[in-house]
From TrEMBL:
PANTHER family: ADENYLATE CYCLASE (PTHR38760). Residues 26-222 form the Adenylate cyclase class-I N-terminal domain. InterPro entries: Adenylate_cyclase_1, Adenylate_cyclase_1_N. It comes from Pseudomonas fluvialis. The gene is cyaA. The lineage of its organism: Bacteria, Pseudomonadati, Pseudomonadota, Gammaproteobacteria, Pseudomonadales. This is Adenylate cyclase. It comes from the Bacteria. Signal peptide: none annotated. NCBIfam families: PRK09450.2-2.
Amino acid sequence: MLRLCAMSRNQEIRPDIDDGIDRKVLAQLRARFLKVNAGRLQRAMLALSSRQQLVLRLLPLLFHVNHPLLPGYVSAATPAGLSGFEPDESLLAEAQRLTRSFVYKPARGKSEAPLHGLFLMGSLGTVAQAEQSDMDLWVCHDPQLPAAAILELQRKCRLLEAWAATQGAEVHCFLIDPQRFSRGERDGQLTSDDCGTTQHYLLLDEFYRTAIWLGGRTPLWWLVPVYEEARYPQYTQTLLNKRFVRADEVLDLGHLARIPAHEFIGAGMWQLYKGIESPFKSVLKLLLTEVYASEHPQVRCLALRFKQAVFANQLDLDELDPYIVVYRRLEEYLLERGEQERLELIRRCLYLKIGKKLSVPPRGRSKSWQRLLFERLTASWQWHERQLALLDSRSQWKVRQVVGERRALVNELTFSYRFLSQFARLSEAGSSLSSRDLGVLGRRLYAAFERKAGKVEYINPGIAPDIAEDSLTLVHMPAQDDNQDSQWALFSGNLHAQEWPDYAPLKRSRELIELLAWCQRNAVIDAGTRLTIHPGDSDLGDYELNNLIGSLQQAFPLPLPSVAESALLQASQPRRVLLLVNVGCDPLKAHSQLNVHLTSARTDALGYSGVRENLVLSLDQVTLNSWNELLVSRYSGADALLDCLRDYLNSLPAQGPHPELLVRCYCRNRASAIAQRVEELFREALQRLAEQPPSRLLLQIQQRYHLLQLQAGQVRHQSLPDLPSLVSALGEELPQYSPLHLDRHALEGHDLALLLPCGRPDCLQLFYRLDGDMAEVSLLDEHNALWRQRLPFHDEQTLLTPLQRFLQSLQYRHNALLPLNLELPGNSLEILYYEILPPLPGRAQRLERRAAPTAAVNQAFYDVQAIVEPDDHARQHVTLYCNHREFSELEYGTQLYQVVASHILAQRRTGGRYPCYITDLDLSRIYPQQQMQTVHYLHYKVQLEDRLNAALQQA
């Protein structure tokens, strides 16, 4: 029985399978779908060129027959024959125009037709059809086709695609096994803009509401009422079993009763991924995914709405247009939520997607159906001519228009990501999709749009094709008061000094390079841009500005390469670093203004001329990292170079290649030498950073010393004002042996420049240099820590023997705590002796090795041993032994050193007050064994000797 429901003048078909179905009703339903299909196909043809129309008309015939002279022929064995297809005379005439020898031979039976259906996917026949629209062709074949036959069919598809290209048509053929497809099994992408392999039902939804049938069997889905979708398998089985429908007239791709939650996540992620580069195209589908997800699990997808409209005989092609159907549903959703701003964005995205410029008169005499449709639609939106003109001029949009649109698009993309993340958590659908994918996508969005200090904002993610300005004015604006800094501003146009204060700038920045990097990242400046400079109190000139822009363009050419997923799975790392030295400042400005030219043999940029001027006043570092973020940092002040070097080294990855480093300088004086010196310093630091064990690097800038401790990820910079501070810093304990490298200009002419690079592990090296009746004694211990002391000099034996005795006693103590195994390396520390020549006050030039003193073996000596111990109050107590006689603070208190001094004088035959030396020292209660270092002992030795010798002089 058939029940009809009147809706205005239309008749709605509501079949009830339990009451029986009239085959005429099913035929009527099929006719309605075919009527819509014919209208869409006719609209598709209207927008195609004559050659493209030929391709579309001939495709069913070319799949239906195999003829050696027709396009797409592979072999006689290639599957051919489209179910129920019979070409008309006009189509056969078109084929004969391609090859006169073609004669059509009708198929002998439907069973011999291995191709079950031919469908056109994509934007053809829709309001969004454009000249460059491609044709995605679904070729549905017999599930029983053997693998060899499918390979033949694939070859035929490739040949037809190539032929279509010669006719100006872009065709993509996709082979479909209906049985496998209905089960959700797919071999690959099914459209040229596929959303991945997990969105089966969403793809099916798009197919049912957009596909144009070209020939073969029609979808069985057409004949199932929406209210029976949940019983689709039973309903269709009844149709086939009771022969309401013949199996060789329909093909079954499945139903849309339920869409799994994970498909919304997968589809949303894919659209977000594409939206980062081209947001206008993705926003519509993103919001549709949000609508579907918000309805889950009772999703009323648009294909069901489309089918319901056909059942209700509502066949208005305009309202059934796939894009209009999408818009109407999004409009409902956003109006229900009261989100007018998002609705306006959706309208703009749809308008730009359609691409019909309503502010421009039509090309022909009559308006296209797309134009008429959109004129009615925009009128209902109450859009005025000015708004239409603005959207139509998108190809000419510049910075101001792009920045305004970016805000809305980024808000939408960010909202969509948060919605998807929350939906994944609430629906617990993340099991079928890796949570890693959401994390990676979040990082893509973060890298593309998140603002953070120093990051150059990307303002044009596919919004406008070219935002380069014809002319720009760059202004250095002075600070208005003490609470403000000076700034750089960029204005559109060529403005005079009296004009720019009356205009709003396109962009402001505290520093020039930050502004120029923004211009480069967003292609605001190109080869045709004319730049006007108002440098203010900076030293910037046309030559330097042009070179700065050129360096940025060379270092960071556009478009940037796409970011691989592997890069987003780990923290961002620098890929390319551009260092720009002395931007907008002349290091010798004062001399240039006075027309004074310094002449000196000292040309080092870090210690220039006799007064050792530092010519590196500032550095701007521009970094492109592995996430395609462009970051700008500025360093200025006395320690600018070292702070920049420290931060650069700390940013390097622990493993993997170092970033490409470029150093440029364009200031007015000594630019090339400055750039070369900075690059040399950075490369040396990089080389030393790779060494094991971790090393140190010593530099001298002007009169200051800088000590860099190099260890990956932990580079520290210590600034030291003078030589005593440096010596003190070099004398600090080290946890392990640490090589010390000197910059080639550090400590020039000083004896430290000769001895500091000589450090060796597990070795004590003692250096002395004569200075009249005194000697400067230095020692590098087993960890390469420095110790220095000035001592009276009589001869080498008296100078070195006490030190040798002390160092040997330390070795005895050290070795006594180790296993007695002569094969173990490092059981004893080698002691080497050197003299620095020539003596003072000459300039230190060389080291000469000296033999160890022999007096310690041949002559007896007076033994003075010290033991230092802590008490419970963190105080240290000293016990002295003079030739094994004990002198303790417990016995003598504060008079200890006076008593010991008197005892030593009494032992001397002449009573001389010459210095007394500690020959042995025990600090085992002060330092654990593993932390004991020779320099510790030497520091205590000097302190004890100073107190003891002061007491000797007073005794």
